[in-house]
């Protein structure tokens, strides 16, 4: 199964998704926002992982999720906190589908598309 990678996710978000399979997650990383747009366009699943983009490789474990919808918002930030005045935020509604491990990685224009092998909970080493 192919999926678009959302990397660098907070451990708290992954844990909450494991407890409650439906969740809205807020993304600020430009790569993750673009990944959600790609998943919407191509009707692909998401692969959420704690690991940063540079560490996603064969063997990386994470959560498989179905993208139910997404909304982009422009948010203003106080000038003291950033050199930019606006930040694009994406709120993505997801449904947990299962657990997975990367078996193949493809970098397409800065987005990571991975082939996943679904796992049973006993196979996970994520903690």
TL;DR of this structure?
InterPro entries: DUF473. The protein is of the alpha+beta class.
Note down, in words, how this protein is organized.
By secondary structure, the chain is an alpha+beta fold. The chain has a single domain, classed as LON domain-like (Archaeosine Trna-guanine Transglycosylase, Chain: A, domain 4, Roll). Helix content is 17%, strand content 50%. The protein has two helices and six strands, in the order βαβαββββ. The chain has a five-stranded mixed beta barrel with strand order 1-3-4-5-6. A hairpin with a 2-residue loop joins strand 5 and strand 6. The longest helix has 13 residues. The mean pLDDT is 88.
List keywords for this structure.
alpha+beta, Archaeosine Trna-guanine Transglycosylase, Chain: A, domain 4, 127 residues, globular
Read across the widest sheet, the strand sequence of neighbours is 1-3-4-5-6
- Elements, N to C (H/E): EHEHEEEE
- Give the mean pLDDT: 88
Give the second-level CATH assignment, the architecture.
Roll
Spell out the CATH superfamily. Answer: LON domain-like
Largest sheet: 5 strands, mixed, barrel
The total strand number stands at: 6
Tell me the number of helical segments per DSSP (H or I, 4 or more residues long). 2
Overall geometric form: globular
Overall tally of structural domains: 1
Determine the structural class based on helices, strands and strand pairing.
alpha+beta
Name the beta content range.
over 45%
**Oligomer category:** single chain
Rg value = 15 Å
Estimated helix fraction:
10-25%
CATH class: Mainly Beta
Low-confidence stretches: none
The CATH topology: Archaeosine Trna-guanine Transglycosylase, Chain: A, domain 4
> What is the first-to-last residue Cα distance?
23 Å
């Amino acid at each position: 199964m192919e999926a678009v990678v959302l990397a660098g996710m907070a451990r708290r978000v992954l844990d909450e998704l494991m407890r409650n399979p439906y969740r809205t997650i807020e993304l600020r990383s430009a790569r993750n926002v673009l990944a959600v747009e790609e998943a919407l366009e191509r009707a692909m699943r998401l692969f959420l992982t704690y690991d940063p983009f540079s560490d996603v490789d064969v063997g990386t474990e994470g959560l498989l999720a179905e993208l139910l919808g997404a909304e982009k918002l422009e948010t203003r930030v106080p000038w003291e906190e950033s050199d930019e005045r606006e930040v694009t935020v994406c709120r993505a509604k997801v449904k947990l589908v299962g657990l997975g491990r990367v078996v193949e990685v493809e970098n397409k224009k800065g987005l990571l598309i991975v082939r996943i092998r679904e796992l049973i909970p006993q196979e996970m080493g994520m903690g």
